[in-house]
Amino acid sequence: MVKYQLSKSTFIRGLQCEKSLYLYKKHYNLKDPTSPFLQAIFDQGNSVGILAQSLFLGGVDASPESHFKVYDSVEKTKLFLDQGEKIIYEATFFYNGVIVALDVLVKDAQGWKAYEVKSSTSVSETYVKDAAIQYYTIVNSGIDLKDISIVYINNQYVREGKLKIDELFTIESVKDRVLEYLPVIPNEVSRLKRVIEKTSAPDVEIGTHCSKPYVCDFKGTCWKNIPEYSVFNIANLKTTKKFNFYNKGIVTLDQIELSESTLSPNQILQVQSEIEGTSYIDKDQIREFTSNLRFPIYYLDFETIGPSIPIFEGSKPYQQLVFQYSLHIQEVSGSTTIHKEYLADPKEEPRIRFVEQLIKDCSNIGDILVYNIGFERGKLNDLIEVFPQYSNDLRGIVKRLKDLMIPFQQKWYYTPEMRGSYSIKQVLPALVPELSYNDLEINEGGNASNTFLSMVNGTFKGNELQARKSLLEYCKMDTFAMVKIVEKLNEIK
What we know:
Layout: E1 6-7, H1 8-16, H2 18-26, H3 36-52, E2 60-61, H4 70-82, E3 87-95, E4 98-108, E5 111-117, H5 125-140, E6 145-153, H6 165-168, E7 169-173, H7 175-181, H8 185-197, H9 219-222, H10 239-247, H11 265-276, E8 280-281, H12 283-291, E9 297-305, E10 321-330, E11 338-343, H13 351-362, E12 368-370, H14 373-386, H15 391-399, E13 401-403, H16 406-409, E14 413-414, H17 424-431, H18 445-457, H19 464-490
Parallel strand pairs: 1-4, 2-3, 5-6, 9-12, 12-13
Antiparallel strand pairs: 3-4, 4-5, 6-7, 8-14, 9-10, 10-11
């Protein structure tokens, strides 16, 4: 068999950027490492794909033994077709240098139908193009496809008892949209083959395509000349405007002519602060904020998981479910804080004990400080819906919430070290440089979420006791950071 040049994934990659395709095929070693967060997304996608096979029971599997033996799947598929199989998982076809593996191929009374599974909650234009290259390859391999559909997650599904696969998934035909795109496929295939055959990488400048529809995994190569802090770090600036600066040769903040820019006041503050090396502190606003805090003060932070397939009763796909909190309590001004925490048992429904302990630990008086109030408030409101028996206590907690992010979001306190961001990960080293997340084994929320979710799913590899310790340390740091930030704000006279 002639070696394939394109797969459906490299076809989509090439449509996004010719240079990315070339580097992937010729300089794979330059590819950015896959982050644990991104790997978790891939793993969830694989789990969804396997589960979706349950919609079409009784099939045979054409998957290869390894990625390197993909041609074996082509031969397996031919064999299954010759044997009269009517449901084939990972049916694989090769035509004109393109190889595609379809999630499920089904023959019913109307004929052959193709199903591609996505872990998303809607059908994007990229998915249509993905389906189109599959349709092109399968039909030209001799299969008369009557329909091709995308199978995706129904995000309105609420789990009640046993998982109902037919309600969890939505099946949407995309044949009409595929047929509209189909005429350009041969030319696109030829164009991308020529890209691969080049002796050097195409000269493609960085642009919005670097992150649309997917964040490119060769940014480390293509963006290596962009400084760590540049116009691309200007907060809340549209991507198109960032590239407008870049295309004019403006890369660093000191190259911006503020008198001629259309930046917002907060963006101008960021640029001026960087150029002049100065901080901005609105003492009156900060003093008003801190003076209105009512003791005892509770410093609270949640951690959540968002499984694509709902695990627990009353939950939806991708719904953020609480599993951990950290709480620092300060009884009076200047007193030593008391720390309390909760981390669920991954083998149990995490929320009910979370709620019961949180209500107990938060008592019923004093302000509860969080960082980004929308998150914690949203999760508490979700809990009120699921556990109405605790609604009064939970509503009481919601009413006491105050947002520590406000002084930084509103730029009442801004330093060059914040680099336009008001996230706690940037604010903390700016105000309290002696504290850092860098030494923590788990040092960001996505990693915490993935770690606990893998414990729930039974896929965690490593020392679970050590991992639980790391989870507790990370969440504790979030609330301790809030304590230290408030101390710094209180020093402002």
